[in-house]
Specification:
The chain is of the alpha+beta class. The chain has 15 helices and 17 strands. It has a nine-stranded mixed β-sheet. A five-stranded mixed β-sheet has the order 14-13-15-16-17, with helices on both faces.
């Protein structure tokens, strides 16, 4: 009987894995160039860590279970909460700012479709300890730098603020929990439900239409800002948030990021965001086109730490791979062995093993382990795209082997001493 994979999971074959690793490496290099250091956290956490402030949207899609000791645990659906737990427990007294990055698998019990999986990978960063506009802008600029480094062309950066609406609601006496619920409804895009909920919260017709108007604002900076100012006239706390966002946009432009859409309709599906938020969409990906999401948030105090300014983002790594492919970007990746060592019969096997060990000091090579006749082994080598075959036979008694160039078919005797240098070159 054959077993199938659990729904929403994937296997990765060698070629795909090589491409994924190569993209991962390039991402890591950019994170490191911006001064970020890697951290890793467990694949599962206490359920409460995730339910504390991640938001209904995520909690509804958790994989959770009881372990044999009766503890409630959950597979991590994202990495910001785990990283902030780690920060509160281990790093609070470290010099600020802290720049951390991570790469790991996440789990969400969602309806699988193209670009949406139950196990997927995130690559992300958290910048802890600064609320300055330039810190928040750095995080956005870093996300863009990664995409540019990878060669992705078709993507759109949208920057907004959940702070504007949160402050608007706060000024009307609406508590944080209710604000989160409203943001969740906005994130789902259900306009009717939003209108109903705002009515239930006692917001006037004028407030409701101002909110609906702000949420629709999307486009070029100056046009969006001046319309938002009109809609928010007299609502000082919300206007302050808008000014704060403008400071971040100024810094972002200094980072050289000028192509973006100011989008005041971004609500994000997670409850911990407080101010600036951003999302990146790969235009060619269809329904699941969001390849990156992030913003400024507050979580440390939820986990028993001192309040600290934090911002970050996570790429959906699998969606990045899909977007690169759709964009026709050559993915490459580390290639397998291009050299093969084949003995002329069993009596030369030991010598072949020794020679392959010698070669592996500098090149990747594979050894014939099927005890095939040379002709059969050579046809395997050619089907695998091997460039050079080292044939080990009677010449070894003179310290030599036969080196066959598989492309030209040319074959010559080479000194074993010379072999490594020849093949490494
Ligand atoms: P998020 O938007 O929930 O944010 O997830 C980040 C990215 O993960 C999404 O933009 C998407 O590309 C990818 N993603 C989410 N769910 C799936 C899925 N089921 N299958 C494939 N890809 C998926 C966060 O998780 C925040 N922790 C980001 C953050 C970091 N905010 C501040 N710091």
């Amino acid at each position: 009987m054959k077993y199938s994979r659990p729904r929403g999971t994937r296997d990765f074959l060698p070629e795909e894995m090589a491409a994924r690793r190569s993209v991962e490496q390039r991402m890591r290099r950019v994170f490191v160039r911006f001064g970020y250091a890697e951290v890793a956290t467990p694949t599962f956490e206490h359920l409460e860590l995730i339910t504390a402030k991640s938001g209904e949207e995520i909690v509804a899609h958790l994989y959770h279970f009881k372990d044999k000791g009766g503890r409630d645990l959950a597979l991590r659906p994202e990495l910001t909460a785990p990283v902030m737990r780690l920060y509160v427990n281990e790093l609070q007294s470290s010099p600020k700012p802290l720049r951390l990055y991570y790469f790991g698998n996440c789990f969400r019990y969602e309806r699988p479709q193209a670009g949406r999986y139950r196990e997927f990978w995130q690559a992300g960063v958290e910048l802890i300890g600064s609320s300055s506009p330039e810190a928040q802008a750095e995080v956005i600029a870093l996300a863009k730098a990664v995409l540019d480094e990878l060669g992705l062309r078709n993507y759109e950066l949208h920057v907004g603020s959940v702070g504007v609406l949160r402050k608007f609601l706060e000024e009307r006496g609406i508590a944080e929990g209710e604000q989160c619920r409203i943001m969740g409804i906005i994130d789902k895009g259900d306009e009717e439900q939003l209108e109903e909920e705002l009515l239930k919260l006692g917001l006037s017709e004028e407030d409701r239409s101002a909110i609906a108007g702000v949420l629709e604002l999307k486009g070029e900076r100056s046009a969006v800002v001046s319309r938002a100012e009109e809609l928010l006239a007299g609502r000082e706390a919300a206007l302050n948030e808008l000014r704060e966002l403008e400071g971040i946009l100024d810094a972002l432009e200094s980072f050289g990021v000028r192509e973006y859409t100011l989008n005041l309709g971004i609500a994000r599906g997670l409850d911990y965001y407080t101010g600036m938020v951003f999302e990146i969409y790969a235009s060619k990906l269809g329904a699941e086109k969001q390849i990156c999401g992030g913003g400024s948030y507050s979580l440390a105090e939820t986990f028993g730490g001192k309040p600290v300014a934090t911002s970050g983002f996570a790429f959906g790594f699998d969606r990045i791979m899909l977007a690169l492919e759709k964009d026709g970007v050559e993915l490459g990746g580390e290639e397998g062995a291009k050299i093969m060592v084949i003995p002329f019969g069993e009596e030369y096997l030991d010598r072949a093993i020794e020679i392959s060990a010698l070669l592996r000091r500098s090149v990747a090579c594979e050894l014939e382990v099927m005890r095939r006749k040379v002709k059969k082994a050579l046809s395997y080598a050619s089907s695998k795209g091997i460039d050079y075959v080292v044939l080990v036979g009677e010449e070894t008694e003179r310290g030599r082997v036969l080196l066959k160039d598989m492309r030209s078919g040319e074959q010559r005797e080479v000194d074993i001493e010379e072999l490594e240098r020849e093949l490494a070159g």
